[in-house]
């Protein structure tokens, strides 16, 4: 167990983090990467919906066009039969069918116009989302480069030396000795597990660590890592 003022103990975790080449938390650059990645995912979903909507509308247009062709053929056949028919009832039925086909053709023509308007809107929406996806991909790539540049091994090394200078020599010596033994000099105590070996500790050990004096840094009973509460 180390003796170290409570307001200095966090430096042990920061030292371990720096020497492991990690970061104690996300940088503004990391947060920007996360934000842009979320926006990009949303835009890609919107793009897929626009593509699907355009595809569905295109199928609807093809169906309407096929129905119109069938109606035209039906009208031609009815007119041909009407020209040859002499029976009054037959002529009446053919005329009724022609009128029905004409009404249906008018309805389909209206639906076709609406579908053409809709697919134009879907395609414009698709183009908009494609452009937005491209822009976000470029922004994300730039943000990722910035995040990588904001955190380098040299930064970690300089930070580690800075932290060491703020700690008592005996604490640094004990930390280094423990690091040689287990690979971890210190870690944060999660309340249940050691951050070094990641083992969940028995209830009795947890209670002992929690009840240790505030100006002391207890060790993990399994790996010896100094645990900062």
TrEMBL record:
Highest taxon, organism lineage: Bacteria
Q: Where is the composition biased (Low complexity)?
A: 139-150
What Gene3D superfamilies does this protein's entry cite? Answer: 1.10.287.1490
Q: Which InterPro entries match?
A: CT398_CC_hairpin, Zf-RING_7
The segment(s) forming the CT398-like coiled coil hairpin domain are 23-181
The UniProt entry, under Pfam families, shows: CT398_CC, Zn_ribbon_9
What does UniProt give as the signal peptide span? none
Query: Which residue stretches belong to region Disordered?
Result: 74-93, 136-160
Every copy of the C4-type zinc ribbon domain together lies at 193-227
**Know the name of this protein?**
Uncharacterized protein
Q: Which organism is it from?
A: Corynebacterium pyruviciproducens ATCC BAA-1742
């Amino acid at each position: 167990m180390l003796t170290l003022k409570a307001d200095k103990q966090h430096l042990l975790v920061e030292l371990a983090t720096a020497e492991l080449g990690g970061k104690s938390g996300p940088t503004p650059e990391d947060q920007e990467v996360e934000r842009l990645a979320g926006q990009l995912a949303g835009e890609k979903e919107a793009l897929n919906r626009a593509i699907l909507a355009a595809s569905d509308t295109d199928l609807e247009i093809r169906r309407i066009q096929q129905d119109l062709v069938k109606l035209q053929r039906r009208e031609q056949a009815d007119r041909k039969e009407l020209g040859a028919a002499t029976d009054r009832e037959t002529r009446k039925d053919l005329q009724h069918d022609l009128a029905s086909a004409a009404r249906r053709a008018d309805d389909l023509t209206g639906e076709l116009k609406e579908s053409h308007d809709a697919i134009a809107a879907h395609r414009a929406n698709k183009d908009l989302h494609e452009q937005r996806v491209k822009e976000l991909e470029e922004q994300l790539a730039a943000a990722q480069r910035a995040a990588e540049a904001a955190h380098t091994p040299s930064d970690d090394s300089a930070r580690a030396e800075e932290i060491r200078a703020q700690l008592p020599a005996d604490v640094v010596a004990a930390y280094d000795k423990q690091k040689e033994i287990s690979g971890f000099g210190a870690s944060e105590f999660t309340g249940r597990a050691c951050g070094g070996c990641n083992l969940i500790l028995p209830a009795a050990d947890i209670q002992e660590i929690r009840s240790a004096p505030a100006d002391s840094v207890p060790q993990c009973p399994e790996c010896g890592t100094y645990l900062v509460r």
